[in-house]
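Working notes for the structural subgroup meeting. M.R. asked for a predicted model of this chain before we commit to crystallization trials. I am recording the input and output together here so anyone reviewing the notebook later can reproduce the run.

Input as submitted:
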Amino acid sequence: MKGFWNIIPSDRGLIEWLAVHYHQRAASLFDFEKKYNFKFNWDRLFDPDYERAMGKGRPLLLETLGFYDIFMPIRRKGKSFGTILSGAFADREVTYPLLRESWGRLTGQTASPENGEFQQFVRVMLETPVLEGPTLLAYREALELYAGVLADQNKPEAFRRWAELLTQVFSKQMPHSYFMDWALGLPTRQTAPIWNLAVQEMPWVRFEIGLSRVPTTVITAIPVGAGRGRHDAVADMLRIYRFQRRSFHFAQTLPQTVGGKLENYGAVFVTSADPSQSRPQRRRQIMEIAERIHDFATEELGGAALVGIGETVAPGEPLKESYRQALLGLHLGREEGKKVVFFSSVHAQKSAGILEIMRLLEKLKRLVETASFADLGATLDGFLNQVLTLSMHDPEEIRWHLQYGLIQMKDAVEKRLFGGKEEASRLHENLVLSLEKAGTTQEMILSFKDALEKLLFLAQGGGALKTVISMEGVRDYLDQHFREPLRAKKIAKLVKISVATLSRHFKKTTGVGLETYLQNLRMEEAKRLLKTGSLPVFQVAQSCGFKSASHFNRFFRRKTGCTPEEFRKKSH
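Returned structure, recorded in token form:
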């Protein structure tokens, strides 16, 4: 969720939206609204209904394209001095009819599962939090408590009640993505503690996650083959989406187990057996849990499912290797036609095709880690040929092998970069998305080769790619800070390059100069405020980062051929 609050400084009369918490995603509903010039009626915030709600301290629920935002007033002694905006959420599980309707309202187009842009829209919407029933009521209460804290009201009681909502509602209904990334050794956007035996003593793990012992085993589950009926990429995405949501809740019915998302194609579980039992008994317990997961997955997916089990690690040891083995178990299961595969090094020897893929992948990984690129081309060709030979009649299986290959290449690049792991992870996320969009086998192969090339450039400290990544960071910074006075010297210092280098590469990357890009951002924001709000022109100028109202008026007229006021009248 996103949390914002609106501050109105009395000395300037300027309205600003500041982020309190920002959950970073590749895209959001707001990004699509901007792209298609969808008009969100911000004037609703200033209409009599909202004023009455503000006056009584009640929240306002607004709908956009079938999704919702909560606007919570912040009041102290009868005076309003801000608003909390929750960020977009769904009030029920996202469905195909909702997505079609939202797409039609947004673009004026008919939704088609073959449309790549619609598919990307669906991916973004399926990342939107779902707050339904008691969860929505609890979330509204949490926002009311937060508004009270910002207004310096009854903080101890608010903190106590927040703790109750966390343990009794949110932890039972909302996926634990941070915990799962930490447990599996995946990159997290927040600092993660060391994974060891102390995990099981942490109060939030016991009372929010619901574990009393540290997980020791990873289990993965994926569908096998497409869903029933005609193949529909969006229907498949929704099928996985529903499976992942239900996997989280199903895990709560299993002893000492937490469930989460396996990328965009399955579910992953972390669990443990009773440490007081013998090793064969513990192995049986894990197999029983895996079989229950398989039965659940088969029923939920309405078709065949495959489950992979990693080897159990000692309590407190990192789960990353068990996670890798659970993924390998899926490879083995696909090759041998099994439903549940307990990975072991001996087991892996039984499958010649999978073993050859793993051998070539390990060689590729070693070549990247040691920067020995002489045999890289031949090894890459061998890996791709083996993948195609093994999975010739199943494009989705080819995609799966290539996705797994990208994970291994990312790990190899991270080892070379040392301190650049986050950079490699961000690049890997974008490359996986590109691979997902590939439709034919040829497109998948080309996408994988392109992805590997970019990762290799990064591993080599690759000048050109490093500059492109830096420029992406500059654009992100400008997108967030364009309202502030910005100078090229300050931005160049942030990315540790000269002003001349910044200017040259920024124009090469974006097609426009830095100052033009910045002014375009300010101009688009000004147009949005003029279209959707009633702020005086001088406040619009201040809000968008222009030096003065007169400068804004001149610039606006030069760009549009009319004054800001004339533009507002035409828009209305």
